[in-house]
């Protein structure tokens, strides 16, 4: 598990920790981006972006366009974003990173398919003088910085909300199934550990699975195994680490004859998940403000590419350790539990989704009950 060292504490929801250099009494060592004498450049910088997959809708809908727009804004349209998506292929991502090196990008934002496998490529980038910013998942190797959500808070939120949903039924006789994320994703281990810490002292974790590639079909197969072992009627709740897998969980329960779903968690506030929350098929998701995460990563990449080191460092108030690198400069983004009663004040207010996108066809009645009007 990654260790995050905090020099500031914030409360409240959806905030990026952007703290001045003086806030922590000076900068800590570690996680440097390369030369101590950076080359200063103007707006004509070239930023590379490597994203891991398209299975989760956020990457193509929010992350890529958000980073591209911010790079253009910060460079007055003169900067260039070079983009590639690995589509869950770790070896292909390594090849993509090499192509970014060959293209001589000035800085690189990488959301790794496999955090460990990407480490040699990160080292090659540093050797070529290209700082790498780990994005959303903490890549191993000598990354210059990490931008991500507070992963422990995500898992804690999911676990606490599941217990809240169980209410007075939460107890040792309550059997919960855990559908965790991919073993190759270091975030998944943090979500799982934090959620289990919330659940284990109150309910019984009857079955727990680590789900390859975060795929819904794999989660569905695992849920079928849990149903066969425990019995559908005896499953009190399901911890699903994200929304895509929650869809697979719901399918498995429906095929087992369940009509009223037990509380099921999720993450990412995907459109289908918001609709399931409205109809009661999913209890909650974790809303993560991707626009803030993307904007922060883009600004860090542009500033370090321009050699504006003080501005770059000011964006990273926290420190994180990976298995290979200590004291990595980190910008942390907070999260919020998304439930039926706060859809309007979160994803709609932030223009994440429009009411017209959510309240289609069969969801119109549920939207009306929730006070969502077009």
Descriptive terms for the model:
globular; alpha/beta; 13 helices
Could you walk me through the main structural features you see in this protein, from its secondary elements to its overall organization?
By secondary structure, the chain is an alpha/beta fold. The protein is 39% helix and 17% strand. The protein has 13 helices and 13 strands. The protein has helices spanning 58-74, 90-102, 119-127, 151-166, 186-199, 216-230, 243-255, 271-279, 290-306, 309-314, 344-348, 355-358, 364-369, and strands at 3-5, 46-51, 80-85, 107-110, 132-135, 145-149, 175-180, 204-210, 235-240, 285-287, 318-321, 328-333, 336-338. The strands form three sheets. The protein has an eight-stranded mixed sheet with strand order 1-11-12-6-5-4-2-3, with helices on both faces. It has a three-stranded parallel sheet with strand order 8-7-9, sandwiched between helices. It has a two-stranded antiparallel sheet with strand order 10-13. Helix 4 (151-166) runs parallel beside helix 5 and helix 6 (216-230) packs across helix 7 (243-255). The longest helix has 17 residues, at 58-74. It is globular. It starts with a strand and ends in a 5-residue tail after the last helix. Residues 1-30 and 32-38 have low confidence and may be disordered.
């Amino acid at each position: 598990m990654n260790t995050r060292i905090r020099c500031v504490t914030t409360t409240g929801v959806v905030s990026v920790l952007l703290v001045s250099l003086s806030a922590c009494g000076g900068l800590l060592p570690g996680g440097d981006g390369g030369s101590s004498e950076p080359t200063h450049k103007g707006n004509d910088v070239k930023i590379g972006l490597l994203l891991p997959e398209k299975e989760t809708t956020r990457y193509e809908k929010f992350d890529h366009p958000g980073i591209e727009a911010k790079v253009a804004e910060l460079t007055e349209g003169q900067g260039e974003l070079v983009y590639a998506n690995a589509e869950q292929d770790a070896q292909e991502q390594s090849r993509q990173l090499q192509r970014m090196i060959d293209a001589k990008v000035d800085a690189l934002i990488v959301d790794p398919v496999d955090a460990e496998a990407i480490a040699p490529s990160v080292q090659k980038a540093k050797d070529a003088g290209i700082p790498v910013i780990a994005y959303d998942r903490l890549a191993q190797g000598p990354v210059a910085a990490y931008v991500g959500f507070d992963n422990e808070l995500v898992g804690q939120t999911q676990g606490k909300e599941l217990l809240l949903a169980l209410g007075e039924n939460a107890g040792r006789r309550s059997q919960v199934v855990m559908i965790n994320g991919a073993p190759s994703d270091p975030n998944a281990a943090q979500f799982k550990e934090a959620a289990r810490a919330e659940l284990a002292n109150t309910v019984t974790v009857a079955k727990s699975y680590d789900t390859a590639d975060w795929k819904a079909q794999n989660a569905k197969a695992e849920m079928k195994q849990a149903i066969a072992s425990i019995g559908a009627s005896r499953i009190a709740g399901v911890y699903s680490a994200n929304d895509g897998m929650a869809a697979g969980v719901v399918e498995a329960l429906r095929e087992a004859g369940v009509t009223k779903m037990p509380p099921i968690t999720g993450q990412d506030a995907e459109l289908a998940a918001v609709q399931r929350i409205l109809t009661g098929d999913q209890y909650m998701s974790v809303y993560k403000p991707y626009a803030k995460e993307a904007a922060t990563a883009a600004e860090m990449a542009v500033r370090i590419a321009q050699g504006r080191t003080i501005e770059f460092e000011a964006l990273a108030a926290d420190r994180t350790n990976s298995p290979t690198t200590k004291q990595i400069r980190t910008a942390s983004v907070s999260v919020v539990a998304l439930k039926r009663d706060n859809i309007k004040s979160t994803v709609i207010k932030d223009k994440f989704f429009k009411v017209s996108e959510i309240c289609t066809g069969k969801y119109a009645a549920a939207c009306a009950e929730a006070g969502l009007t077009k």
